[in-house]
Specification:
single chain, about 70% helix, Serine Threonine Protein Phosphatase 5, Tetratricopeptide repeat, 2 domains, mainly alpha
Amino acid sequence: MQKSIILIYCLILAFLIFGITLQNGFVFDDMAIVRDNLMIRNLANIPQFFNSPYSSLEAGIYRPITILSFSLNYFLFTQKSLWGQMPAAWSFHFINIILHALNCWLLFLLIKQITKQKLLPYLTALFFLILPIHTEAVTGIVGRAELLALCFSLLSLLSFLCFKSNLKKILFGGLTFLLALLSKENAAAVIPIYIFIAFYFVILSSSKHSFWQKVQTTILNFWREFLVLFVTFGIYLIMRFSVLKEYLFGNNSTMVENPLDFAPVWQRILTSFKVLCLYLEKSFWPINLSSDYSYNQIPLVTGAFDWRMLIGLIAFLFLIFCLFWPIKKQNFSLFGLASIFFLFPFLPIANLFFPIGTIMAERLMYFPSIGLCLFLAIILSKLYNARSQKNFKPLFFIIVVGLTVFYGARSFARNKDWYDEKTLFFSAAQASPNSVLSRSNKGAIYLLDGNYDKALEETQAANKIYPFYPPAMNNLGLLYYYQQQYDLAEKQFLKTIAISPGYANAYENLALIYFNQERYQDAKNILLKRYLDHQDLANQYLLSLFEDKINSLKSAGQNDKADKLTKDLEELKLN
């Protein structure tokens, strides 16, 4: 009964804080992955989800369960008579909120099961629910991958720790672990987390034995669970390889997305510690949260006296110390447990051992932040249980209530930034003024609003940060185009194509200029380059330009111009 009540409280609090996102739309990556993804609109495509990459093959990402959840989301909340309609954004936000509440409840059950303490599970779940750095994972629809991976990871750990039957452990623990991996690859952290938890239990029950005797006892007592985890991970790797092939561990990040991928090893490692400091800073003091930390918002470390790098290094060493402290002290250390839940989910996103697709992203802290919530909960629990309770209990309640109000209000306010792309890009540019991506996106919004002076200002700022960023270069071309400076626009798009031959928008915009100048053959030639000499695709795109223009002219009553355009189309023989 108590467990059900806790779940209800989690749902109520989650909707109080995140319910405002039900009015939000699709933003940023939500567009391509969800809104414009026709594959998710038909459940008959389910087998294809398991045979396709998450986005592009080169990105090396495989998350079929996440895509399946989007498809089920669409199926459940879209009437069959409207099957071909645009997905309803509110329904995806609705499911994300429920998943977040469910994760908080599962976290409560797990911490209670491991520690057997009364207050600690409540505090940990509370802080995890309201932490503002989680807004990107919960409010951004594609953050579903983080939510699902953690949900199934917690279920897997609970299965191994709670079920007494070995068969149930194997079936439920293995299955949920596989589902976690197929939701997002960072769920692999379950393996070291469970191994260390099992080892801690052995330490607690056999304090007189030597270190190697404890290792042997751990293997003897938990070999079935370990075997299930490793076999399941092997199955996942086989499934992943069958789809991604040579891109099994692919990473197609650019200099803009992750400059650490192009930095010397020593600089990448030192900057990773700096990023760790930033993650801790944004977690506990959530001011100026941002959806973008790309080039050059986080300058790379160039020397040994970067204060954020030093704090990050000290924090990392402290976590390592806490991790191995129970082995020396012969007891179950709660700080060690907190280190487990932070370090192992954090290491795959840290850029320490290998570069990933981004230098920093707040959504990536969703799993590791369990450890941070545990640290905070442990400290406050010790304050509550201090011997001089009369002096510390009032302080305990003041801190807990203060943090709840502050973090809850901050999360609520942060959700508004994700209302649409305009609010998101403007908030990102304010929080990350040195990011070429944020300044370029802000310029694009001004461009769409017809504010050409502001668009030019932001585009020039983006080009100053990174002169060869294709979207910013493309935006400058569009600015010239909207101002009817076609010669300058043509030169800018050609320059963009020369710098980034794979940037499709520049080809399409250049084709539009040629089309409006009645240079139809030039338009077709540039589209052939865009579609790698596929005649049918180039003709289809050019045909759509003709059809849109002809329909527009007819609607405006300009039938003579429409007839002339129709004649030009017939001479091109695109049909």
